[in-house]
Write a structure and sequence with these properties.
Two copies of one chain form a homodimer. By secondary structure, the first copy, chain A, is an alpha+beta fold. Chain A is built from 16 helices and 19 strands. Chains A, B: InterPro entries: FAD-bd_oxidored_4_C, FAD-bd_PCMH, FAD-bd_PCMH-like_sf, FAD-bd_PCMH_sub1, FAD-bd_PCMH_sub2, FAD-linked_Oxase-like_C, FAD-oxidored/transferase_4, Oxid_FAD_bind_N.
């Protein structure tokens, strides 16, 4: 959209809505909100507003509509595609939901929890735990990301295999539309076939259609049995075959199946404090297997032993260990979750967040490796991720001794090579992180024109003035 | 929309697209397509077209757009809200997908099945079974309903508790838009965060935004353990408490939890051949409990015994029986599934397909009974359904000796009484059947104006000419 810098008069009107303590223009205070974690984007903003209620969000958007002021919603600012970062023109206001962090209700009988969009994910997990329930969404940034952002990006994480993405964990939403109108869709129903699915349209829209201010989330019984195993294997093919066995044996009790390469174990043992190689000799590939059962602790135990036995007998598993304490279970997960951080001391890393149909994972891994090494000899591929979901974080550390800046300069280049193979397999260039600014133009380039056109029609129908998080997901 | 009877010239052009064998105007052949099962709606149509491919569907919609001809998509014609029935003006053509009944692909490793929209649900279940997998969608009409209709209405059924509605069972769609453009969204990915969720917008849209022609469906491991139990209890409150215990104990292994009233057992034992009361003495309420386990048959056995023991010890269960053979399991489910049919010989039945937050079920049942009996003394309430989903088929058989026509004349009347209580509980007036013609105006009346307005904007953005299934779900 075309917009100009909001006048001081307009900014004063915004300030009046939330009080001057919650309307920030101080540069130092603004600074952390203007960039995202990886340092890929750095924007500017006219003001940061921190409303304290849905009504205040409504008043802000109503005024933004009237004055044509672009609004960038932000919660935990942990997104990885620049969706929460304002543009560089400085015309936008950032609307932070951090003060709206109240758990509105917890109902362990109906298995629902109602939360403000600004609640930190870990606080929601804790509130569920306090009533003996599980809110299964779990990801590295859970201590700082907020549920509004999780919903707006349809966050994935480590529990998707059994419980689904954030979309599957949400029953209802409260959304403030660009006009300021409030849609109360806070339903608590498992079945409700009453017209078009507005809820799922706002989920994953990355704040471009409205601002999510509250949500009804699904809770689950807490598992009573939990087992974590770690196995060394020869190849992604072996891992895939083992996944099939695990899936047949455990059904929905299979709560994690993560693939890791040897180089990832090297990086984590080298750079992450306290991480040790769980197996005595090295293997080319590894899987972390997580099993949770609701009936009895013994069921998980029986399952994990049966699975490892099947894996050994069929020659798929070379060696394996079962965590014998909660501390050991946590250590195995910690190794997996710190794999991205462990790449940092190794220099630059070019990232991909892709998914492919899981039966194509072995071919994808082989073809991508060949193509990447041909384009960049010496590149160190550290591809790991949620094998059971087909979601691979195809990360590439720079060749030893390479210049970091020069290496990172080939980001788009290497992306194009990997994404071409992903697309050829019928895969996705953004499995769980979303589109934001990072992949907006790439999305438009790879998808059929009719699909982009339909998205554009939805955007125009919901946000005709184009004030909602402009420049993200889709260009209008 | 305003439309007039298609001219014979236009009809000839439609005929040319599919061949005269697949363009039906013969009244006798048309007749069964013009009415729905319950006899609530009886429409007229200018022609019935049976395209054989997505391309033909595209050509038909393209011509319909050009000529302003309304199109009513139809698959198995088993819908219960008139969504598949043309209007009375006779201006529409019916587009039947019945010839598009090919299973395009089955991949047991990736756990996906790709089907034409015209595939009969039971054929899809069978194709999954043939490769050792489960497609869990299951409902009374599975022998004749077709997957395109299941998707378009987001069908529920008996397996929702563990596997979700049809929405949760679909990974990707192929849709022909009103203009004839084809959207190929046949993705096979569990994680794909790339823009607005078009898939879930078409699911449940009841053919008003486009015609679903193909779908990627999720398959699951086949359970190896299966137990069905039947318990007599004193009240819906006891059933709810038992459900909580079952849910905690079994987690996702709890694959069914159905509530039934004594009168439903009376009706089925009286009218359905082969149905016998499974328990020696009568109880006021009953639940059917279905447990499926993936690891071992013994797990299901242990669970069902533990649950009944807990239920007995806590005084929730008065008496119970566990099916000791597959035949007995089927007999218990047959009783539950024939409960609606068993009402027919008892005279007229006024139906409701409602859901409420499950913790409110006991209150809802008590308040609705009181209100209905006050309005219609002698009414025989046969309320049964998927307690675990909060979905009650609140059916009311006519008082003994009442006039059927007069009784059915009070349909809207009684609906209003029951729905008011449903809404007061935060419930839904259509849990699984959809809106169609039956509940369109009621939906517009009970929902906030902004919600109806957003739906209308979507309808206009996708179908500006208003040719897709006009008059259903929402008036434009």
């Amino acid at each position: 959209m075309d917009s100009s810098l909001p006048s001081s008069d307009v900014l004063a009107r915004f300030t009046a809505l939330v009080g001057s303590a919650n309307a920030i223009t101080d540069e130092e205070e603004l600074a952390p909100r203007l960039k995202e974690n990886r340092g890929l984007y750095h924007g500017r903003a006219a003001m940061l507003l921190k409303p304290g209620s849905t009504l205040e969000v409504s008043q802000i958007l109503s005024l933004a509509s009237e004055t044509g002021t672009p609004v960038v919603p932000q919660t935990g600012n942990t997104g990885l595609v620049g969706g929460q970062t304002p543009g560089e023109d400085g015309h936008s206001i950032i609307l932070s939901l951090e003060r709206m962090n109240r758990i509105r209700d917890v109902d362990p009988v109906a298995n629902v929890l109602v939360a403000d969009a600004g609640c930190i994910l870990a606080d929601i997990q804790r509130a569920a735990e306090e009533v003996g329930r599980l809110f299964p969404l779990s990801l590295g940034s859970e201590g700082s990301c907020r549920i509004g952002g999780n919903l707006s990006t349809n966050a994935g994480g480590t529990a998707v295999l059994a419980y689904g993405n954030t979309r599957q964990l949400c029953l209802g939403l409260e959304v403030v539309l660009p006009t300021g109108e409030i849609w109360d869709g806070l339903r608590r129903l498992k079945k409700d076939n009453t017209g078009y699915d507005l809820r799922d349209l706002f989920i994953g829209a990355e704040g471009t259609l409205g601002v999510i201010t509250g949500a009804v989330l699904k809770l689950f019984p807490r598992p009573v049995g939990h087992q974590v195993a770690f196995a060394g294997l020869a190849s992604p093919q072996a891992a895939l075959q083992l996944f099939e066995k695990a899936s047949n044996l455990c059904g929905t009790a299979l709560t994690g199946f993560e693939l890791m390469p040897r180089i990832g174990i090297d990086f984590t043992t080298r750079h992450i404090q306290g991480v040790r190689d769980p197996l005595p000799t090295p293997h080319d590939w590894y899987v972390l297997i997580d099993i949770s059962t609701s009936d009895a602790a013994e069921t998980a135990e029986t399952m994990v032993h049966a699975l490892l036995e099947q894996g050994m007998e069929s020659g798929l598993i070379e060696d394996a260990v079962i965590a014998s304490s909660v501390a050991q279970q946590k250590a195995l997960w910690h190794m997996r979750e710190s794999m991205s951080d462990a790449q940092k001391p190794e220099g630059g890393s070019i990232k991909h967040d892709v998914s492919v149909p899981i039966s194509t994972i072995p071919d994808f891994m082989a073809e991508a490796e060949k193509a990447v090494l041909a384009a960049m000899p010496g590149a160190r591929i550290c591809a790991f991720g949620h094998l059971g979901d087909g979601n691979i974080h195809y990360n590439i550390s720079q060749p030893i001794g390479a210049d970091k800046g020069e290496f990172l300069g080939r980001w788009r280049d290497i992306n194009a090579i990997v994404h071409a193979i992903v697309l050829e397999k019928g895969g996705s260039i953004s499995a769980e992180h979303g589109i934001g600014q990072l992949k907006r133009d790439e999305l438009a380039a790879i998808r059929p024109a009719i699909e982009i056109d339909l998205m554009r029609r939805i955007k125009r129908a919901f946000d005709p003035a184009g004030i909602m998080n402009p420049g993200k997901v889709i260009s209008v």
